[in-house]
Amino acid sequence: MGGDQAITPDEQDLVLGLVVAPGQGPTRVLDEVLTRFGECDGAALPLRLLRHAKERQDADDVERALIVKAAADASGEEFLDQA
């Protein structure tokens, strides 16, 4: 993912693997996602994803940014600044 591009289908699947559903745990770990996106900071990646999604007005990628944020247990204050 770079510039104003949406995240790829493979990246989407990787992020969605972090979701915890009733009766089902995640199929991926945060480190896998961070590595794929070339990031080492669990708080920085969701903000980066959110900024890109906001630029493209892509609600699906906003959701994915929130999934990464939750998986990283990152603070929500930075997200409020992006609104």
What oligomeric state is this? single chain
The count of β-strands is 0
- Helix tally equals 5
Helix share of residues?
55-70%
The structural class is: mainly alpha
Distance between the termini: 22 Å
Mind explaining what this structure looks like?
With 83 residues, this protein is mainly alpha-helical. The protein is 58% helix and 0% strand. α3 packs antiparallel against α4. The mean pLDDT is 89.
Briefly characterize the structure.
The protein is mostly helical and 83 residues long. Helices cover 58% and strands 0% of the residues. It has helices spanning 9-16, 30-36, 44-56, 59-72, 77-82.
List keywords for this structure.
5 helices; 83 residues
Secondary structure elements and pairings:
Elements: H1 9-16, H2 30-36, H3 44-56, H4 59-72, H5 77-82
